[in-house]
Automatic annotation (TrEMBL):
InterPro entries listed in its UniProt record: Cell_div_SPOR-domain, SPOR-like_dom, SPOR-like_sf
Top-level taxonomic group: Bacteria
PROSITE patterns in the record: SPOR (PS51724)
Molecular function terms from GO: peptidoglycan binding
Annotated region described as Disordered, given as residue ranges: 59-91
CC annotations in GO: cell division site; cell septum
Record has Methyltransferase as a keyword: no
Stated name of the protein: Cell division protein DedD
Any one Gene Ontology BP term: cytokinetic process
Bilayer-spanning residue ranges: none
Residue ranges annotated for the SPOR domain, each copy included: 105-180
Length: 185
């Protein structure tokens, strides 16, 4: 059997719970609820509903005059005096197409800097990421167990020559300036 203390404790908990739950509703009285007036926008205006009238104003006339145009009005040409387009086509001069030799002016215009070749590809990738953060156009190329760090390509040889000096300060390695071959890089 439960002791007297336990019975009183349970009874007290039940009375407090009822007081906390029920008494606020009883003592609160009449609750006023506020509703916001919500007006929905109709998808389609009602038929017969005035959708809005607008007053159309007449244009205002200004006192300034426009300058007269120097071009005189064109005279109408009679149908018999108009030139025949078919006759114009027959009078054309025969032209022979001139063959132009194809010259690839951009064949040797690209340049790259081969900065270094590393055995550890992770170190090469870290270096490339660092150079890209500094604004260089850098990438790697794997070849024969080495990973080459390449800067470029760029069409300006002078710009890359200046970058070689900057790269030597950053990495301590002087790169080689090479021609860029897009088909066999």
């Amino acid at each position: 059997m439960a002791s007297r203390f336990q019975s009183r404790l349970v009874g007290t908990i039940v009375l407090v719970a009822l007081g906390v739950i029920i008494l606020p509703d009883i003592l609160d009285g009449h609750k006023t609820r506020y509703k916001e007036d919500i007006a929905s926008i109709p998808l389609k205006p009602e038929v017969g509903e005035d959708s809005g009238q607008y007053e159309i104003l007449s244009p205002e006339e200004s006192q300034t005059e426009l300058p007269e145009s120097p071009v005189e009005p064109k005279e109408t040409v009679a149908e018999s005096q108009r030139p025949n387009p078919a006759a114009e086509m027959t009078d054309t001069v025969a032209t022979t197409p001139k063959e132009v030799p194809e010259v690839n002016e951009y064949k040797d215009s690209g340049w790259i800097i081969q900065l270094m070749a590393l055995k550890n590809s992770e170190n090469a990738k870290k270096l490339v990421a660092d150079l890209q953060k500094r604004g260089f156009i850098a990438h790697t190329k794997s070849e024969h167990g080495y990973t080459r760090v390449i800067i470029g390509p760029d069409v300006s040889k002078e710009k890359l020559e200046q970058q070689i000096i900057e790269l030597q300060k950053i990495t301590g390695s002087k790169g080689q300036l090479l021609k860029f071959k897009p088909l066999n890089p």
